[in-house]
Amino acid sequence: MRHPDQDAHTELDPGSAALELQDDLEGDTVREECGVFGIYGHPDAAAITALGLHALQHRGQEAAGIVSYDGSRFHSERRLGLVGDTFSRREVIDRLPGTMAVGHVRYATTGATILRNVQPLFAELNAGGLAVAHNGNLSNGLTLRRELVKNGAMMQSTSDTEVILHLVARSRRARFIERYIDALREIEGAYALVSLTNKKLVGARDPRGIRPLVLGELDGCPILTSETCALDIIGARFVRDIEPGEVIVFDEHGQDIHKPFPPMAPRPCIFEYIYFSRPDSIVHGRSVYEVRKAFGAQLARESHVPVDVVVPVPDSGVPAAVGYSQHSGVPFELGIIRNHYVGRTFIQPTQAIRESGVRMKHSANRAAIEGKRIILIDDSLVRGTTSKKIVRMMRDAGAKEVHFRLASPPILYPDYYGIDLPDRGGLLAATHSLEEMRELIGADSLAFLSIDGMYRAMGEPGRDPANPKFADHCFTGAYPTHLTDQTQTEPQPRQLSLLAEAS
Prior knowledge:
Shape: globular
Number of strands: 21
Structural class: alpha+beta
Helix content: 25-40%
Low-confidence stretches: 1-27, 344-349, 492-503
Distance between the termini: 19 Å
Strand order of the largest sheet: 3-2-4-1-10-9-11
């Protein structure tokens, strides 16, 4: 296994068999974003932050970091790998003293997975230190980056989060919070920010509320984090969602709220319900588990065919399959068993193993499916590569018929707000008809949840094109913000020119 401090040049070559296998296994996966956590005024701030990041691990498995402040100095621990690889060790937590801390788990949406991109990012400003943890993606981040560099800024990372630090630094306002808000006025896109200064914990959410951020409380100490499941793991109390466009500040004087943007109709990301959030989280007042079951029930209303068993593609398809089974009356069976221990550190396999690589992650439970007509339920379909292998695996295990159902609409458009999706040419539904997709994955039938059905499962009458309630652009192409970077004709630099790694 690669040690977190090793130089990036020692990592497996991107063309290696191990990475090919990983890419193959993740072919139909909507890749995660990031998770943020911050706490103010608690004597065990770093340890609590580490626990919170454990609960948010599903939001990013590439890297994790914590920055704390002890009243005189900032302390930082940032590592590649899982939270438990580093932050379960007592000596690491001991190196993070103080009563204030912010933490981040990361999946690389902009910038390669190298140590200097691992958040929270930290900078010394004239007013003191500033650490920023960011969930989301700036749709004008590359444009701002070019402008900043042109004007003399020196960028140390390839992350759009560093742009925010530079924008705060160049503001000429007197008070820190005014400088912070100045920076927010210049950025567009999706963001949930948790930031730490030597006096304050600051949370901010984009004006459309695309990315989630919640407020909790533990022993009288405020907590800001991406999901309620991070509050549950430490026994904290959920207080409320941070509102779209809200900036909230905690310091020795208490709580201060700023609302610097004109009110806009909220457009939270629908993928929080489809895939990103943990099933036990409550997002904007809705249980993620119950919503996913409702997606499955709606799918059964729209596209049921006679079958003997309902089989989820684990783990993301499980709640929708429960809902489908309950509504249709067809028994639910674990016809696929998932191996949770396949990752990039797996020994480089032979070509023969690579060709059937999906079996390393998913195994057929022959006893549940042999001789039966089955309906497979998954959360979404991206490229179709894994779906094709799973259908073949079901047939090889003796399934008589294999029907495939997706608990979301067809993904037709890329995302620019922190979801790692291919461009349109890499999205199966954008380049193939329904029948062509069915033939490609080898299913007896294929159907997706309708867009209106998705909204109805969320308790809405349907999708109002004039006022959509969610950021559903991956299905509709209706992006909720400007996409400045996408309109630029000049090529945008996505990595530093010379350095491959610098910690």
